[in-house]
Amino acid sequence: MSSVKKEKNLGTDLRYYISLSADKLQSKWKTIVIFIPFAWLLLFFLTPFFIVAKISLAELVITSPPFSKMIEWVDGGVITIRLVFDNFIYIFDDPLYARTYLNSVKIALISTFLALLIGYPIAYAIVRSKPVTKQLLLFAIILPFWTSFLLRVYAWMGLLADQGTINNILIYLGVTDTPIRLLYTEFAVYIGIVYTYLPFMILPLYANMEKLDGSLNEAAADLGSGPINTFFKITLPLSMPGIIAGSLLVFIPATGEYVIPDLLGGGNVQMIGRQLYNEFARNIDWPVASAVAIVLLLLLVLPMAVYQHYQAKAAEVK
Amino acid sequence: MVNVKTSSGSDALTDTKEISKDKPLLEIRGVSKKFGDFTAVNNVDLDIYQGELFCLLGGSGCGKTTLLRMLAGFEKPSSGQILIDGQDMSEVPPYKRPTNMMFQNYALFPHMTVEKNIAFGLEQDGLAKTEILDKVDSILKLVELQEYKKRRPQQLSGGQRQRVALARALVKEPKLLLLDEPLAALDKKLREQTQFELMNIQEKVGVTFVVVTHDQEEAMTLSTRIAVMDKGRFIQTGTPTEIYEYPNDRFVADFIGSANILDGKVVSNIDGMVEVSTYLGKFSLTSNSNISKGSNLYVGLRPEKISISRTSSKSTNITGYIDDIGYFGNTSRYKVRLDNDQIIDVTAQNQKRPKDEKDRLTYEDKVQLSWDNSSAMLLLK
Q1: Of B47, B103, B60, B74, nearest to B232 (Cα)?
Q2: Residues A285 and A177 in one domain
Q3: Chain A partners of B121 at a C-beta cutoff of 8 Å?
């Protein structure tokens, strides 16, 4: 009798230890799983950032790499740390940079607004369509990603050029005799940015609106609100998280955009991405280029902080 | 749908509540709704009068919600007409109808406070700010939510949300208030309590309610009249008592409460006195519909209308053996096996606490069943 009891005890003990070690194993796995993205961020985001920050505080010298060392051993075992803020002062002094930053932000803001204006109805229409059509439309939104971004921008060059498709059609239709200048204008840059980043606006909007409860619209109608009023009082406020997410996803990369202003804007549209490239590749001034990058980063962190604040507030309400 | 009254005494049982019957507030005329090949609502006719609390009762997919949504204007009838206060609603969009709806999931606006939710409908009517505030305050008082007016729906309990939804719909003083499963999302205790609250509020404001529910107990408690629906049709319309005591077919008898359904054959029909023979013997029942001799129909006998005991008496109709017992505390449900192996359900009140085990009816006890012949229900289909 007692031996049976003992065995039973042993059994439960064993089970207890197994479950304990399983718990431990699980928590170990948790740590590993969380560590991987952390390591990734550390290695590929934070480290490069500190390298860029370090270079931005160096001086241009004719060596390879073309910047001064931050930490140096002077004879006698003294460590000197040299931080040069000239690059930042230079950026703030030269009005060219301020203008370029402002222009970048302006173009990015207008592009974001245009993308929202075009993307919102599209997202709304996708949400409202039948399941089969919905899948098809979502597929169509993602389809452009299957071809290279660069190729698509080149395609726009072909469309917008003086002898390009659009002008040829306009001349053929007799709308104009001489080609209208489209390529290498700010207009072309807007087209490029809005076209490229539209999916990043539509997808978060779609994800947000898909979750909206259709009965809220019915409730509003039932309480005497017409369709337009319902849109502004119910649908629009409730899709705000989607609007903010989509706008950030367009605004942030658009501000630092290099390829589109370079290819579609030519020399006529000054954006900070091109400026950065010029400093880095043409002037081979790595320290100034790094300083430009750091300032751009700070400019972009601001809207991100606003977004985070909004999200935290939204989470609080829930 | 034939609406045959199988009772003679039903007039005496109609509800005592005063409802003006001169002109219906809501008239549903031959309304059907088809979704593709599927007919959700099939040629329905109904009049609802001012001050009624009317229940559309049926299982899921019976078309009750579709009918309610047609009243609100969210669905257009495929054919037929809906009139409210004599006015045809066919071309009237939801936002211009004199109806308000309380949604099953409440559909409260999550980005607005309780106060704003309730004020929303009044704002659409373009009322003055002070008037809106007054109305919101008084309706909040009615549903006892004054302290919660600055809260958001997410910060309320289920019962509180239910009351906000009711207040939001009521504050507009609609001619017709439509309620889609108003109590389904609440737990049982709260549901019972809220049933009475809902009735009190309806009585206070005097608004006509149309309630959709699948819960027969809820329908019985709440309503002045019930329409039992199945497969898009009205099977029977009447007061709770009429529906329960005089169902006119098997579906209703079985759906509302429970019933022993017996196959029967008409032996004779003399001036509305119908004699039907079943395996439980002969039943003499009154009916004012045309039933010819020799036709087959059904007789329903409710379990609680049968009394069960171990001792035989003069009134004993049949004897049997207890096959199964369901003990619910206040009542017990017995399955009694007859000599011909048929099973009869009997419900008995547990009025006295059994003194000992012997006092209690138990398995395989031989029992005497008796009933009042007039308690049986004549079911035509």
Answers
A1: B60
A2: yes
A3: 223-224
